[in-house]
Write a structure and sequence with these properties.
The protein is an alpha/beta fold. The protein has five helices and four strands; from the N terminus they run αβαααββαβ. Strands 1, 2, 3 and 4 form a four-stranded mixed beta sheet that branches. Helix 3 (about 45-75) runs antiparallel to helix 4 and helix 4 (about 85-125) packs across helix 5.
Length: about 190
């Protein structure tokens, strides 16, 4: 037998032996008690989020009206802007609105996420959850096997839903199902 074939056969035997040996060992199944928070629901249910959205759209409409007036004033008969400085002014108006609201949105979301994290820690301890994941309808984190604790987290967030004086009442606790750390079929 040539040396290459001998090495290949030895590697194959070793690989098969390792696979069979690994299959013979008993594996202890690890269970994780998991929960999820639908962050989209939390953010969109907040009165402050609704107010920020309203302000943003009002400002966008105001900027759009300003842009429309500039375009009408400085366009030729075909509706084309011939003056580069007007075009640059239009971009400046748009960029100012967008950068202002990107910062406001980021500040709001960061503050809300910190509040959500604190509330999730409390809910996880109350429900004896090992792990709480952020989930949303747009970008699902968990396909199956986790307990949605969105309502409990919202109930644990101080001043939620417009009440800065008192936190919302606690949602009733329901037992969290366990999710296996090993793959399951749907």
């Amino acid at each position: 037998m040539n040396k290459g074939l001998w090495c290949g056969a030895a590697a194959l035997v070793l690989g098969v032996g390792l696979c069979l040996g690994a299959g013979c060992q008993t594996r202890e199944q690890t269970l994780l008690r998991t929960g999820t928070i639908n962050s989209t629901v939390v953010l969109q249910s907040d009165d402050k989020y609704q107010e920020l959205s309203r302000q943003y759209f009002q400002e966008r409409i105001k900027a759009s009206t300003e842009v429309q007036k500039l375009v009408e004033k400085h366009s030729n008969e075909e509706g084309v802007l011939s003056d580069r400085s007007v075009y640059e002014k239009l971009l400046k108006i748009q960029n100012e609105v967008e950068s202002k609201w990107q910062k406001k949105t980021a500040d709001y979301i960061n503050a809300k996420m910190r509040s959500m994290q604190s509330a999730a820690e409390k809910v996880a301890a109350d429900h004896k959850l090992d792990l709480v994941l952020i989930d949303s309808n747009d970008v699902p984190t968990v396909e199956y096997g986790a307990h949605d604790v969105t309502a409990q987290v919202m109930g644990s967030m101080p001043g939620f839903a417009g009440s800065s004086e008192a936190p919302a009442p606690e949602a009733t606790a329901s037992p969290a199902p366990t999710a296996s750390a090993t793959p399951q079929s749907k």
